[in-house]
Design a protein that fits this description.
The complex is a heterodimer of chains A (about 100) and B (about 400).
Chain A lengths: L1 E4 L2 H7 L5 E3 L7 H11 L19 E5 L2 E2 L11 H4 L5 E5 L5
Parallel strand pairs in A: 1-5
Antiparallel strand pairs in A: 1-2, 3-4, 3-5
Chain B lengths: L2 E8 L2 E8 L6 E6 L4 E7 L7 E7 L3 E7 L44 E3 L5 E3 L4 E7 L7 E6 L2 E5 L7 E2 L20 E7 L7 E6 L2 E5 L7 E2 L20 E6 L7 E5 L3 E4 L7 E2 L9 E6 L7 E5 L15 E4 L7 E3 L17 E3 L7 E4 L5 E4 L7 E4 L5 E9 L1
Antiparallel strand pairs in B: 1-2, 1-29, 2-3, 4-5, 5-6, 7-8, 9-10, 10-11, 11-12, 13-14, 14-15, 15-16, 17-18, 18-19, 19-20, 21-22, 22-23, 23-24, 25-26, 26-27, 27-28
The chains are: A alpha+beta (about 100), B mainly beta (about 400).
Chain lengths: ~100, ~400
């Protein structure tokens, strides 16, 4: 079971209150987690990854276990603590402005 | 008694304001989609409870929302067959996919446009500026987007197809972004000619189709823009907004970057009608619901100073179709006012007397229940207002 924490705007869009828990078949990677997330919440398609290119939207970042994983390849396995559900995968909107 | 529903899009959410026909007491509902930019909301003329909203964000992209109950509840259209809701009970709609057409011959981008550096640049989808529901079918709605293109949905907002004859008709490479981006911000459907649609783009100009969107041509003859290399060019004019009274669909009024213009021949040619306005810069323009020669603008000092001249918020009304203008000030701040009124932030109802509404970047929505003679704020402290639309309900 994978835990995902969405930014508040996307929690509102998906009508979820807290963490999202997902069952992933196969290795836990950014791609597999986001595929499962979007399958369960289709309204999130295009909001985290571009519809066509599947690239991470520029102002979003992926963090896990205190590390910024935003520039990892989509199929790189996520840390064991994420795969086991001990730690959540955080999807954050970049802070901009003062 | 008739009712009025005012749909307000702001920088941080949508608000729905309702009143009876007296338009004295208002209920305020919202914010809907708190924290998101709501560029535009509009109701279907064929089904007033069907509303469409453009919800967007620099972080999360474009969402289309739809209400089938007059704005009480909203969903993203397009719930797939099978499992109809998420585990939390929300419809599984998915509606934010706007993909530009490519060339049928080459499969490559249809065209490029001029960029800020003068070079050619590919089209990149950014947001929906304006939604225009069909006059007859609640499930058909047009979307004007940035980078400028026209899309249409025939399934209630679930899927969108580009009307690429507009970008592909030949002038696309000359289009360029205005200060607010290269946006298609105005869509006007001709109630007497189903094949005729007018659109306007900053900064390209106005265009018309007479065959339902297959073919298009520029309609900018008579526009004069001294800040472009050829001031009377066919393409390149920064049109801010265009308005039409449905009873006379061949007569158009335009607020250009500078100049207020009118056309009496469906845009084939334009004449300036700025007359005695204190400044002919501005964004919003609209036409009285019952008097097609009565028009409204909100003069703004300049492109460098986006606020009213002299700190006085004044709507100007012409009862002569332009040239002769009177300032409408009763109820509007006449000192220390430095707000802007954006292009889609003015609308009229069709009650007798005609109501006129506009929203400001300071978060006020002003209403006049007597065609502009007297004004009062419905709300004063919303986020910056991006758009105002009005529905007159039975």
């Amino acid at each position: 079971m994978i835990r995902v924490i969405l930014p508040p705007h996307l929690r509102g869009l998906a009508h979820v209150a807290g963490e999202v828990e997902l069952d992933i078949k196969g290795p836990a990677t950014q791609r597999s987690v986001l595929d499962a997330l979007e399958a369960r919440y289709p309204m999130l398609r295009g909001t985290i990854r571009d519809h066509i290119t599947q690239q991470r939207r520029p102002f979003l970042r992926f963090f896990a276990c205190g590390e910024d994983l935003s520039h990892e390849q989509p199929d790189t396995p996520l840390p064991d603590a994420i795969a086991s559900g001990a730690e959540p995968l955080l999807i954050l909107g970049a802070i901009a402005g003062g | 008694m008739s009712k009025v529903r005012v749909l307000v899009g702001t920088r941080k959410g949508a608000f729905v304001l309702t009143s009876d026909g007296k338009r004295e007491k208002w209920d305020v509902s919202g914010p809907h989609f708190a924290g998101w930019e709501l560029y535009h909301l509009k109701g279907s003329p064929a089904d007033p409870n069907r509303l469409y909203a453009s919800q967007c964000s620099g972080w999360f992209g474009q969402i289309i929302q739809r209400s089938d109950d007059g704005g009480k509840t909203w969903t993203q259209p397009g719930t797939p067959p099978g499992e109809r809701t998420t585990p939390e009970g929300a419809p599984k709609g998915e509606s934010n996919k706007f993909v530009y057409d490519t060339s049928a011959e080459t499969g490559k981008p249809l065209t490029t446009h001029q960029f800020y550096d003068g070079k050619q640049h590919p089209w990149e989808f950014k947001r929906v500026w304006h939604l225009e529901p069909s006059l007859s079918d609640p499930d058909t709605v047009y979307a004007g987007v940035e980078d400028a293109a026209l899309f249409r949905s025939k399934d209630g907002g679930k899927s969108w197809q580009e009307l690429s004859g507009l970008r592909g008709h030949g002038t696309g490479p000359k289009w360029q972004p205005g200060a607010g981006g290269m946006c298609l911000h105005t869509i006007i459907l001709d109630p007497k000619n189903p094949g005729r649609i007018y659109i306007a783009i900053s900064a390209a100009g106005a265009f018309r189709t007479d065959d339902g969107g297959k073919t298009w041509r520029p309609i900018n003859k008579g526009l004069h823009s001294q800040y472009i290399p050829d001031p009377t060019a066919e393409i390149g004019h920064c049109v801010h907004h265009v308005a039409m009274n449905p009873s006379r669909p061949g007569v158009l009024f335009m607020q250009k970057h500078w100049d207020v213009m009118r056309s009496d021949n469906a845009g084939d040619s334009w004449q300036e009608v700025s007359g005695n306005l204190p400044t002919d810069f501005g964004f919003a323009i609209d036409v009285h619901a019952h008097e097609p020669e009565t028009i409204y603008v909100v003069p703004i000092k300049s492109d460098g100073e986006h606020f009213p001249p002299d700190g006085k918020l004044r709507v100007y009304r012409s009862r002569a179709g332009g040239n002769e203008w009177e300032a409408l000030t009763k109820g509007l701040p006449q000192r220390d006012c430095y707000v802007n009124v954006l292009r889609d932030a003015m609308a009229v109802d069709s009650l007798d007397k005609c109501g006129v509404y506009f929203g400001t970047t300071g978060g006020q929505v002003y209403a006049s229940a007597d065609a502009g003679d007297n004004w009062t704020p419905i709300v004063r402290d919303l986020p910056a207002v991006l758009s105002v639309e009005v529905q007159t309900l039975p």
